[in-house]
């Protein structure tokens, strides 16, 4: 293995949550008088922490979202996760291979700790991630595209940034990994390759990842 630590994004990389959450986010923003399509939500918010939603709406409209926006949105998302959420095809096989080979891995997500854990419990991925392997934008001051989250995860895992590889599916995540001085493999499962052009390498099938990481 050419890397000492594999850092996974969560939404869209480990759990197939992006279609669910962006559909609900677009609907809720539209409901509140900020017309947003599913495609708009993917373009503007995929891979971002919740503060980006607040910041962009305020910047564009001069209006703040309701104080309970995050709580209402997350209730809707968690309810939908219980009905619909599945692991990304191939993700379990990658984790099995990394664990068998003794390669360190973790997850570093823009989502909250609660969101990560809800998704992992529903999909059965919780068996692969104890508390010491889960990092959230809640743990740092700035979310992606700032490098803070990935640097924080690497520090806690005891691995130098240059020895880490990040697995991402969003432009913001690719920017954050590059800013952290880490290689980044861009997953094009639902993101056009052109939007991940800054990645070290692109791949379209999560089942291929373990083989790609081996020299």
Layout of secondary structure:
Elements: E1 5-8, H1 18-31, H2 38-45, H3 50-61, H4 69-84, H5 91-101, E2 104-109, H6 113-123, E3 134-136, H7 148-157, E4 164-168, H8 171-179, E5 183-187, E6 201-203, H9 209-213
Parallel strand pairs: 1-2, 1-4, 2-3, 4-5, 5-6
Helix pairs in contact: 1-2, 1-4, 4-6
Explain what you see:
The protein has 215 residues and is of the alpha/beta class. Helices cover 45% and strands 12% of the residues. It is built from nine helices and six strands; from the N terminus they run βαααααβαβαβαββα. It has helices at 18-31, 38-45, 50-61, 69-84, 91-101, 113-123, 148-157, 171-179, 209-213, and strands spanning 5-8, 104-109, 134-136, 164-168, 183-187, 201-203. The protein has a six-stranded parallel beta sheet with strand order 3-2-1-4-5-6, sandwiched between helices. Helix 6 links the parallel strand 2 and strand 3. Helix 1 (18-31) packs across helix 2 and helix 1 (18-31) packs antiparallel against helix 4. The termini are close together.
Strand content: 5-15%
Question: Main beta sheet: strand number and arrangement?
Answer: 6 strands, parallel
Number of helices: 9
| Distance between the first and last residues' Cα | 6 Å
| Fraction of residues in helix | 40-55%
Overall pLDDT confidence: 95
Strand order of the largest sheet: 3-2-1-4-5-6
Low-confidence stretches: none
Q: Rg to the nearest angstrom?
A: 16 Å
Shape: globular
Topology pattern, helix = H, strand = E: EHHHHHEHEHEHEEH
Tell how many strands the DSSP assignment holds.
Answer: 6
Supply the helix-strand structural class: alpha/beta
